[in-house]
Structures are given as C-alpha cells and as structure tokens.
Amino acid sequence: MGEIIFDKSRRNLKKVYNRINSTNLNQYVKAQMEEVLFLAIGGYNRTYELLLAMGLKPDEIATFSNLNLSQQFLNETHKKRAIYLRKINYVTNVGKNFDFQSKRLDLNVADGFEENLMVYENAQRTVGIGKKKEDWQKPSIVVMDDPSLNLQFEGHRFKYETKIGFAQVRNRNATPSDIVQEIKPVDEAKNMMFAMYQENMVDEAEILDGLNRLRESVHLQLKDDWAMNPTEYKKILGSNKLATRLKEIDELGIYQLKTNKRIGYKNARWVIIPDKAFEFKGFDYKDEKDLFNEELEAEENEEQAYIQEQESKLNEILSIELPFNIRQGVIGKQLNSSMASLQGFLEDVDDIEKEKINGLDLLDGATTEEEYHTIKRNNLAYYIDGNFKNNERSDKNYLGGRRLISIDVDDDNSSYEREQVEETVEEQGLFALVYPTAKYYYNGAKRWRIVLMADEEMDKEQYKQTVTGVANMFGLEIDEASKKVSQLMGYPLVKDDVSVISGSMVNVHQFYVEPKPKAKNVLPMNKVTSSNKSVADFEHPQAKLLKQALNEGVPEGKRNETYYQISMYLRDTLDNPDMAVWHDEAAELIETMKEQAEADGLPEKEIEVIFR
Q1: By the 8 A CB rule, do 457 and 403 touch?
Q2: For residues 229 and 264, what is the distance between their CA atoms, to the nearest angstrom?
Q3: What tens digit of pLDDT does each residue of 462-515 get?
C-alpha cells in the first residue's frame, strides 16, 4: 500500500512530475504554449520538499498565498516554473468571538478564489518598464498546499474551474522521495482529475502507530478480545483525541464497557480491544466513483428486493383458488362452477377463444351495431366467481365466495388511454388485470375492464360498497348493474392484451360500513320483511309494462318510452328503503330489461341512456 490515496492522484502527480522534468522545449516556448497545471495536495506537511524532490530548484519556485495579479506578483513569478500557494482558507472564513471560533464555507471566498484561478489560466501581462518591458512568462505549474483539506470543505466543488487535479497523502509526514518513487512507474493523467478527499480526524499513520503500541502492551486476554484499563489505554496512545478516534472506527470494533466489571482482581470500565483490530492495515478509501457505484449497487439491491417482493405478492394473488363460473353468452342464468386460479384463468384465454368462442373473427366480421350486440349477447365468453344456489346466477341465489371486483371504463365519451387506466391503478398500489372489452375489437373504442382482487370474500352489501368505493377512488362512474354481486364479466379475448399490474389486494373494510344497530325503545315500523310477490305483479301502470316486456317484449314504435318507464319504476323501487325486500329482484330485472331491449333491437347507446 503506497502513500498516495487513489491511482488517479498518482497520475496527477506524475503529470506534474513529467512537466517539471521535460526538456523538449525551451522555457519561453513552454510558458507560451503549455496549459497551466493546477494541483492541490491535501493532508501533507512536506509539500515544498516534495516539489524539490520532484526536480524543481528553490529559485524556480515562487511562494504566495494568493493568485492576485499585482505588479509585485508578476515580477516575482516572471520566468519561474511553479507557484507554490500556501493558504489556510481557500473556501472558508473563520468567525471569532470571546467564547469560541468556528470555520464555515463562504461562497464569496470560494468563488473569489475560483475566479483567480480562471483569470490566471488565461492571463497575459507585461513586466518591466521602457526598453526592458517584456511579456510576462508565467509559471505553468500552480501547486496548492492544502494540509487541512480546505479546498473540499463540506464537500464543496468548483463549478467552473474544473481542471484542478487533487492528490492526498496517507501519512502527512511521508518522505518526499518515497512519494516520487511511487509515482515513477505510473502513466501520467491525460487531464488533471478530481479525487475526493478522505477526511479522518486523525492521520492514518498515527492510527496504525497507536494500534502497534496497543498490540505491544495488551496482556489481559478474554477469548478473542483483550481488556485494558481505560487510564492505561489513554496513556499508551498519548492523547484523548487518538483514544476517542480508535473507538469511533467501526472496522476496529474497540469499545468501552458502560459499567464496572470485575476481571481478574480488578474492577473497571474496561476498554475491550478485539484481536481483529490489530489486523487493520489502513482505511478502504472511496472516491466519488466508488461511492457512486456503492450507491448504485445499493439501489439495485433495493430494487431487486422490491421486485421479488412484488413478484411474490403477485404470485400469491394469482394462485388463490376461486369458485369460477364460465359460460357462453348472457342469456339465461345457469352456471357451471369449478375451482380455478387467476393464473389458470389467464393461461386459458387463448385456448377458449380459439377452440370455443372465435369471438375475434365474429367481431371483425360484424358490420352493424345490431350484429355486434347479437354476437356479444349470444357468442362471447363471460365469467363470474362465487357460489350460487343450484348454480343459478342471481343476487338472490348468491351464497358467498366472490372476491373479484370488476369495473368497466366504457363511457362512450371516455378518452382514457389504456396507459392512463393502468397508471390510475398503479397510483393506488393495487393488483389488477386490465384488458380491452369486446367493443374495442369491434370498432377500436377505448373501453377497458379493470379486475381487482378483494382481501376477503364479500357478501352482497360488501360487494356493492367495495366496488362503489374503488370506482370513486379511481374517479369513475359505474351503473347499478356493476354493483350487483351476480353481474357477469366479459372474458378476455387475447391473453397478450391482458396487463397484469402488481400490487395489493383491495381492503374490503376500507369501504364497507357496518349497518347501524336498530335503536332501542322505538316502536317498529310497518315494513315488509318478506314477500312472494314480484314487483311485476303490483297494480301499477309501470308494473304492467314490465310484465308485458317480460312475457312478450315491446312492440316497435313504443320501445324507447316503454323501457324508460320500466327503468324509472325499477330505480324507484331500488331507492325506496321500505321496499328493501324487492331490491335484489329490481336490480336483476334492470339487467334483464337491458338484455330484452337489445333483443328488441334498440341500439346500445340508447339502452345506456334509458337505463342510466
């Protein structure tokens, strides 16, 4: 291990060394043609001796504390080969009062010194007077002696004068000739390079020397550690500063007990010195690039851990077994239930489409809205999770088991791009499947389906409140049909068109509000709690229209108004708390009437307006 920290610093020194020992051009030509080399040497007490060891003679060096181009400065530096700057505060000032003094970064001081460097680099001046007047031959080497590492105080970096090379020495009293021998084998830097100062409160050589003295003095061994009386520890090291510093270095592991402990015949707050401390060979110094690579590696590890966490969470959700029901077309209520996972659901998409449905070809061949709706109603695949009594789909027959939440982004006026929908889901940190609905394959409409997973099974009321809450969270409006626990969902037509977004399951209790218990000491209301009567059997004009539509459809010419009256009647039923016993039936009849309106030939847009 050499005296110079970082190979780039050796190469900076070698560039200056080669400049000093170059004999290719005469001094005047070199002064006019060569770029100025700025070199800062940090943490070293023998910089001037080092310049002499590198080949400069005392009369070739001009010593100053600044680069102010005064006439005296010009005269004294004229025809010199190097300027040796001795300065304490390159970028700081010192505040003093009666109680204390403090050093702080002062950008006015720092900027002023940086401007001096920039001016010096390109300055052209004259010296002498009269016939003796001549061009100033400025030194092409400027060495900044920086024993206190002031040039990088609090991480300061020069923004404009970026041609400064930095070098730092491990042992601030290292022999100059040793440093020269160390740089001779290396190649010089193409350009002077920045090297980050390594700031340690105590010089590394002093630390190594202190550890060596401790090694020679320890005598009380405890397995792999050594114990030393605190007073003896400080006496051997010779200063409180070094004694404290050694305990602060993590690599050494030296610490002091917090309470007295008897070891042998003595009680003391012993200083414990591990054997490994004596193996310390010096600090593992890190330059900017090393620190950047460490940060990069840490970020990569963190990102990889996050990816693995998300992958694990995703696989967990995709592998949940659900009671799945798949059917062709929406006509009828019969289901075929079997257990399946979303992973299996995704894997079967293309097979179901190609072998059973052929929906893509049918939609591609549809030339009218009527053909599209016929295909959608009779030919496409649909699915729903959950258990239903007698495998017959209706809210009334729902037995539980539903966990999938479906929300359609299908407003005709919607301008949502697929990416916007996915970003909306991702912003909430939720797992979801996002895929196009059938209308997208028919005419390219921007219609999308979002399918999420609840963190528990939902009953009818929980499903309604949860799907409503999630839609509100996404800023989307949904119709009453979407709030039904028995609502079918359109099966994806192309597996590659399904986006799988990693995230968490929807928390049901975030949206579900438990019904308030009935107040005590209140007389019961005359409210119907059960009935075998259908809403179509009431003595009401709109109920009669409903019954007619159920039995024989609606004749042409009366369809829009009839279905509008039916819709109003069913929605009034849903909005009336006294008719709660008929709410499930009313919600199901709304969907039945939509299907019947389609069968009677009403366009989809008109149906949406009527049943909105």
Answers
A1: yes
A2: 12
A3: 999 999 999 999 988 887 888 999 999 999 999 999 999 999 999 999 998 777
